[in-house]
Amino acid sequence: KDCAVKIAVVGTGYVGLVTGTCLAESGNDVICVDNNEKKVQTLNEGRLPIYEPGLLELVQRNRKEARLSFTTDLQSAVRQSRLTFIAVGTPQSDDGDADLSAVWAVAKAIALALKDVPPGPPGSRVVVVKSTVPVGTNARVAQILAENGCPHVDAASNPEFLKEGAAIDDFMKPDRVVVGVRKPEVAEALRELYTPFLRTERPFLAMTPESSEMTKYVANAMLATKISFINEMANLCDKLSADINDVRRGIGHDQRIGFQFLFPGPGYGGSCFPKDIRAILGMGRKVGQPLGMMQAVDDVNEAQKQVLFQKVRAHFGDDLKGKTVAVWGLAFKPRTDDVREAPALVLIDSLLAHGAAVRVHDPEAMENVRATYGDKLIYCDQPYGTLEGADALAIVTEWQHFRTPDFEVMRRLLRTPVIFDGRNIYDQKVMDQFGFTYYAIGRGKRK
Ligand code: UDX
Which residue range forms the structural domain that includes residue 213? Predict the structure, then answer.
């Protein structure tokens, strides 16, 4: 216990909760802070406000072993801690830029908590920004600390690269850890903290806060670009009767290209890519640097979210009154209950607007969808339940159990055997064998 680092994590959203819990798991004393009393209460009762595989068990164990606690008292948590992580939300504001008001407020609150604490040597008190923030934010946080009586407190940047649904693994076995620091002592403090996670030759990369902040955006920009790229190619395949699955294989063996993150689909969603692409566009605008490619990535993605509906319309025509469509998968991707910017919602809106009845199923995200749509949709606990009397099935999220269903049962339940597959999870031959009319993304079989 002697060498345990005392850590405060402000913000118990997705990133804060995973960060705090994993840092407790590696032996540190972690206090997670949130100003939302209900959230803190939920966590103190040993329950989670979000769904993430493996997280509940870790939270419960570390609470029991007294390395992890939750509070609304920021001041006390920060005063006890050597490192304070800022992991509050940076939502997209109306003009598309990241809304940083929560970051500024927390930075100031930290300064006020620490201003009468006697200064120690460099690296003895560090504020670490985990939230995804535009380049220059860290410098501003340092300034806020200095202006509010804490010139002795250091600010560092430490972006996260966590994937929802695999966040624990991503934290425990990161491909790399990136930190942005101005002093070697601060780099050392963070290197020590992350050493338990870097056992397998994973690099710890220290750079300036600006480069570190930029790294996060460039990573997500590259990944989003891959998706919009393959989606554009898939749409062309559709028109030219080529099959993107074969094309994927054809290009992926070239090691400069590879196979990863090149799956066509109904467009990317979630809390990161859409927001971060718009934020990087905003950064470019502010400094007079046009980002034509990023604009195209965003435009292609917006259009891609309409592709499934266009296929429905091409099949059934404009008027969907009297038609019922089943939708499998509502979360923006499997293994999460997150429906932020989910392509399924865009499809559902179009279906409803054209008069269709919509029966939906998702193993985790139904409550989140019900919160917005109420009784406009029919919610089914089982995937097969959605098919009763439906004229077609649309698959929007590739949950594992959708991959090998009983096609015989599906055929029997559907009024007409039509499948719009937004994730290319079925084989055309099998579809033919069971007599389905099958539309996929970029498989070129039907227009
Ligand atoms: C992403 C980044 O991967 C992560 O490093 C960053 O920290 C946050 O943003 P996440 O939003 O959890 O993580 O989801 P991810 O698994 O990356 O998927 C994003 C979206 O892209 C999903 O909608 C997914 O369906 C879509 N996608 C992904 C594709 O359409 N095709 C692909 O090949 C890969």
Answer: 208-447
